[in-house]
Design goal:
- With 163 residues, the chain is an alpha+beta fold.
- The protein is 27% helix and 22% strand.
- The two termini are 31 Å apart.
C-alpha cells in the first residue's frame, strides 16, 4: 500500500495501483479485501475507497447510520478492475467502525452468527463512548454472544470525532 500511495493520489487511484501490483504477482485465485481511508484532521474530511471489504459503519451523533461502500472489487482479481472513491465530512460525536468479518460472523460455528445487524445496533447503542470504549464494548458483546474463542480473526478499529 505504501509503495503505491502518494500524497497527491486519490484513494481510488492508489487502489488501482495496488490491484495492478497484486495481479502482476501471479497468485491466481488469491485476492484481498481492504478499505483505504485518508483523514484530513484539519477539516475532518475522510476520503476512502472500499475494495470488496465489509463496508465500515458510520454512525452520526444523531444516530443516523451509513456505510462506506464506494470502491470496487476485491484487489488482485482482475487487472482491469476500476475503483471509485468518495469523501465524507465527519462531525463531533460521529463514530466510524472498520472491522473484519470475524466480528460479524462470530458464533457461526454454532449456527448463531452475531451478524451485521446486531453489530450496527451495538455501534448505535454505544456511540457515546470514545473510540477505545466502543471497541471494548463491541468485543464484550461479541464474546458474550459467541463465547471466549472466536472461529475467525476479529479486528476492529474505531474512529471517534471529538468536539
Amino acid at each position: 500500500m505504501r509503495a503505491c500511495a502518494a500524497p497527491d493520489c486519490a484513494p481510488h487511484e492508489t487502489m488501482a495501483r495496488v490491484n495492478t501490483a497484486l495481479c502482476r504477482q501471479g497468485a491466481h485465485g488469491r485476492f484481498i479485501t481492504l478499505v483505504l481511508a485518508v483523514l484530513d484532521t484539519r477539516d475532518h474530511m475522510l476520503r476512502f475507497c472500499n475494495a470488496g471489504h465489509i463496508a465500515p459503519i458510520l454512525v452520526r451523533a444523531d444516530g443516523t447510520v451509513s456505510r462506506l461502500e464506494t470502491g470496487g472489487l476485491a484487489a488482485g482479481i482482475f487487472d482491469t478492475a476500476t475503483y471509485d472513491s468518495a469523501r465524507i465530512s465527519l462531525a463531533a460525536g460521529d463514530r466510524l467502525l472498520f472491522f473484519t468479518d470475524g466480528l460479524a460472523e462470530a458464533g457461526i460455528g454454532a449456527s448463531r452468527e452475531f451478524g451485521d445487524d446486531q453489530l450496527v445496533d451495538a455501534v448505535l447503542r454505544h456511540r457515546h463512548r470514545g473510540a477505545a470504549g466502543l471497541v471494548e464494548q463491541l468485543f464484550a458483546e461479541v464474546h458474550a454472544w459467541a463465547g471466549p474463542r472466536l472461529e475467525d480473526d476479529a479486528t476492529a478499529l474505531a474512529l471517534g470525532v471529538g468536539a
